[in-house]
């Protein structure tokens, strides 16, 4: 069951907010409880309707999808706070998400007097036409003297008060069930036939055909070709089936694929209307029924893996290769986490393969810089490798130097130098030598391991994702990170000893009598506890890039992380594994350093919208139409430069550059041009007008850039590696802005992927791999190094767990 908790105030750390947060934590084992905040919402304004725009749009969707809503209010002049009042005005103006929604009212007051008047006021508002909520009668929970009511962990101190809250909440859950069963379906009569409709999916149009008999929706056929493989698959498998089985449009969006989910529901609603029935009748019908059995489910396995992204599936596959059993618990309906979103290139030095590619202009000078580099600036543990690398570079430059150079040492030193940073407090960080050595030594082995399992790599090209600093990316033939997830999933499913349970977020560890980890406890979509006993637990739950609060809490690197910053991450990536590790005393490392992706979609944080091309082909212009940075720089330099230039900037491409873009179809580009999220013009002057920069300045910028490509030298910003010029129409401008992309910090691990506690000791039976672990990438992760990390340390975690059994 899904509950939304709303703290009816916009002030931080208020007792009202504490009460909702306490409820979210306290009832987490019974329901999925999400807290939403009113902070930062626009004040209600009748003449400027924003209810269908962000951030209100997402809140409407969340309330509509919830089974019930808890609203906490404080009291101001015997009525509710103005922030809550304004919010409820939005929610009853042109949208009505509270219509027949079960709501529980709770209140806090700093005095003994309580918040009875405000709660009564809130009930009246909720009951008013336009809002029309179903308010839980009685069960008035008021927390008086609320500033003293919580302990330092945010828990309510008084046991009696907690008991009363529990009993009110239990009544609320009963009320929700009763309200659900009272929804009497209206009679409907469709005009039978097949109706063709088109709505918006995630990547563009989502066409579908919905078939009706007189009384039923009989079939929903969706053309899924435009949507991202892997992420949206669950939507197409699940929603049509639920809609048809329940003859209802009151179905939950699939977490992580909400845009596609709402697109599909909207499409069916359109078809229902064409078939002569009011879709609201189907939207008000009860949700498809779920099993009422709430007894725990118990499993036993050798290794339980928390998280079904790349690291988790690699670890599970490695366990199966050794003939042992494994269960993967995945929080979301679809596997893949951030891995499925990845562009695909995975770094590994493979000089024999790279030799066949010609060197690009500028690459030799990057290598020469290493010969002139001051050895004193290299940390002692890396110096021997650095000197050996200098020897390799000298040998290479002594020849024709016309092919692409690479070596494990070059990869290692670039990972180290690329990650070495100083934070705002003057603290220096660089990658742990042992962890970086293992990563770079075993990188190619990971590529080969994946290839053996069936991932097909495109050996005809060596790629370099943004911020990678060198061309050593092995890119799968199939689209994006899905290529890895699909292969590993198939491998696990083919083994009887392997099991994958989706929609089963892990909540805590199972501890034995000695307090040692012996499994995990999760909660599945049917609200049943899932208890998995295991000899080892591998945490592979990813980082915390989708948890802005957590990024802000630990941040020591960026001068500011805005509340409304976008992220390129899956919404599942909220730092769960890090918190689980902390619950058993794990040490954390490098948490203050997060990576922004400079070239993200300004609104959605997405990476692969517009024309995303290799940095040798980037031309970045600011809102004045001028270049402002060496486009070949690392991600944090690009991000800082973007922030200094107002955040928003444009990637310029021409028809030839377009051919080097990642994962782009003509149809999706056309759809973006039509939607106004990508600009296209036959002349540079026209393009300049579209992006609102001075045409003359813009034309001069591009002419200068083209002359630098010809000369192989950029006197303005020092770009050293170029490929194509901007010459052939049509020209494109892709708007970009930095978004949270990667969290380098995480659980402290050793080279065997064992988790280390605050005292520097190994925590028995606990392993971590992938973005949940810290220490490798330090202050900045090179593009393409994460996939190498997750598949290398995922395998290592499994290997160690098996050895220790
Ligand atoms: C848009 C994008 C593009 C990228 N491109 C590249 C690239 O081209 N090359 C590269 O090297 N790197 C790339 N990266 C980085 C890389 O994809 C990630 O760092 C990497 O995939 C992380 O893998 P992981 O297995 O550690 O975590 P994830 O793949 O994120 O998987 C973690 C999984 O754990 C699940 N989970 C979370 N909490 C729980 C819980 N409590 N219980 C159960 N399950 C849980 C999540 O739902 C998720 O499925 C990219 C990242 C993004 C966001």
Automatic annotation (TrEMBL):
GO molecular function annotations of the record: FMN binding; steroid dehydrogenase activity, acting on the CH-CH group of donors
EC number per UniProt: 1.3.99.33
Domain FMN-binding stretches: 201-275
Catalytic activities: dihydrourocanate + A = urocanate + AH2
Cofactor details (free text): Binds 1 or 2 FMN covalently per subunit. Binds 1 FAD per subunit.
Entry superkingdom: Bacteria
Assigned GO CC terms: membrane
Protein's UniProt keywords contain Lipoprotein: no
Keywords noted in UniProt: FAD, Flavoprotein, Oxidoreductase
A matching Pfam family: FMN_bind
Keyword Flavoprotein tagged: yes
Reported cofactor(s): FMN; FAD
Similarity comment: Belongs to the FAD-dependent oxidoreductase 2 family. FRD/SDH subfamily.
Name the record gives this protein: Urocanate reductase
């Amino acid at each position: 069951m899904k509950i939304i908790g709303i703290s009816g105030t916009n002030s931080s750390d208020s007792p009202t907010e504490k009460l909702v947060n306490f409820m979210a934590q306290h009832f987490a084992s019974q329901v999925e409880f999400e807290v939403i905040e009113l902070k930062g919402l626009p004040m209600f304004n009748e003449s400027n309707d924003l209810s269908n725009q962000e951030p209100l749009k997402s809140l409407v969707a969340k309330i509509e999808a919830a089974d019930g809503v808890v609203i906490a209010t404080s009291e101001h002049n015997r009525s509710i706070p103005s922030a809550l009042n304004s919010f409820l005005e939005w929610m009853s103006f042109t949208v009505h998400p509270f219509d027949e929604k079960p709501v529980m009212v709770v209140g806090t007051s700093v005095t003994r007097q309580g918040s009875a008047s405000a709660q009564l006021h809130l009930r009246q508002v909720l009951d008013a036409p336009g809002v029309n909520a179903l308010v839980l009668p009685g069960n008035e929970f008021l927390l008086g003297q609320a500033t003293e009511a919580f302990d330092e962990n945010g828990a309510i101190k008084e046991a009696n008060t907690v008991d009363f809250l529990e009993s009110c909440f239990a009544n609320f859950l009963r009320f929700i069930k009763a309200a659900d069963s009272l929804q009497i379906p209206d009679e409907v009569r469709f005009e039978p036939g097949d109706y063709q409709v088109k709505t918006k999916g995630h990547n563009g149009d989502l066409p579908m055909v919905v078939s009706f008999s007189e009384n039923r929706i009989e079939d929903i056929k969706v053309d899924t070709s435009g949507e991202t493989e892997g992420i949206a698959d669950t939507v197409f498998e699940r929603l049509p089936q639920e809609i048809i089985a329940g003859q209802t449009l009151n179905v939950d969006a699939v977490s992580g694929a909400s845009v596609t989910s709402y697109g599909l529901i909207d499409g069916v609603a359109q078809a229902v209307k064409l078939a002569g029935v009011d879709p609201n009748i189907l939207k008000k019908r009860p949700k498809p029924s779920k099993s009422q059995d709430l007894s725990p489910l118990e499993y036993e396995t050798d290794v339980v893996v928390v998280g079904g992204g790349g690291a988790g599936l690699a670890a599970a596959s490695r366990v199966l290769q050794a003939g042992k059993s494994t269960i993967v618990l995945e929080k979301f309906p679809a596997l893949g986490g951030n891995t499925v979103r990845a562009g695909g290139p995975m770094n590994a030095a493979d000089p024999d393969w790279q030799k066949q590619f010609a060197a690009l202009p500028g690459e030799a000078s990057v290598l020469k810089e290493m010969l002139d580099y001051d050895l004193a600036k290299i940390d002692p543990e890396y110096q021997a490798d650095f000197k050996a690398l200098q020897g390799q570079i000298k040998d290479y430059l002594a020849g024709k130097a016309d092919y692409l150079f690479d070596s494990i040492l070059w990869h290692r030193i670039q990972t180290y130098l690329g990650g070495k940073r100083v934070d705002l407090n003057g603290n220096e960080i660089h990658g742990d030598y042992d962890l970086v050595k293992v990563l770079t030594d075993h990188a190619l082995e990971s590529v080969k391991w994946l290839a053996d399992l069936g991932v097909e790599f495109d050996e005809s090209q060596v790629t370099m994702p943004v911020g990678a600093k060198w061309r050593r990316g092995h890119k799968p033939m199939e689209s994006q990170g899905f290529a890895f997830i699909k292969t590993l999933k198939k491998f696990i499913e083919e083994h009887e000893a392997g099991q994958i349970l989706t929609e089963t977020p892990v909540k805590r560890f199972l501890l034995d009598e000695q307090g040692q980890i012996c499994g995990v406890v999760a909660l599945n979509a049917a609200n049943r506890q899932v208890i998995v006993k295991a000899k080892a637990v591998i945490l592979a739950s990813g980082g915390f890039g989708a948890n802005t609060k957590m990024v802000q809490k630990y941040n020591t690197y960026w001068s500011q992380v805005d509340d409304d910053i976008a992220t390129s991450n899956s919404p599942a990536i909220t730092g769960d594994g890090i918190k689980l590790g902390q619950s058993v005393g794990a040490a954390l490392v490098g948490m203050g350093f997060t990576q922004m992706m400079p070239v993200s979609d300004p609104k959605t944080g997405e990476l692969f919208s517009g024309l995303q091309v290799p940095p040798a082909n980037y031309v970045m212009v600011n809102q004045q139409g001028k270049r402002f940075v060496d486009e070949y720089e690392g991600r944090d330099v690009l991000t800082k430069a973007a922030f200094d230039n107002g955040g928003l900037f444009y990637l310029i491409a021409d028809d030839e550059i377009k051919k080097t873009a990642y994962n782009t179809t003509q149809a999706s580009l056309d759809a973006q041009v039509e939607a106004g999220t990508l600009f296209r013009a036959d002349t540079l002057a026209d393009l300049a007008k579209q992006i609102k920069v001075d045409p003359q300045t813009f034309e001069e910028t591009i002419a200068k850039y083209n002359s630098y490509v010809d000369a192989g030298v950029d006197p303005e910003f020092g770009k050293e590696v170029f490929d194509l010029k901007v010459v052939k129409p049509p020209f494109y401008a892709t708007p970009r802005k930095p978004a949270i992309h990667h969290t380098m910090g995480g659980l402290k691990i050793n080279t065997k992927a064992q988790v280390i506690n605050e005292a520097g000791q190994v925590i028995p039976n606990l392993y971590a791999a992938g973005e949940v672990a810290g220490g490798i990438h330090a202050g900045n992760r090179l593009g393409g190094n994460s996939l190498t990390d997750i598949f290398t340390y995922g395998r290592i975690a499994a290997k160690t767990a098996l050895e220790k059994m």
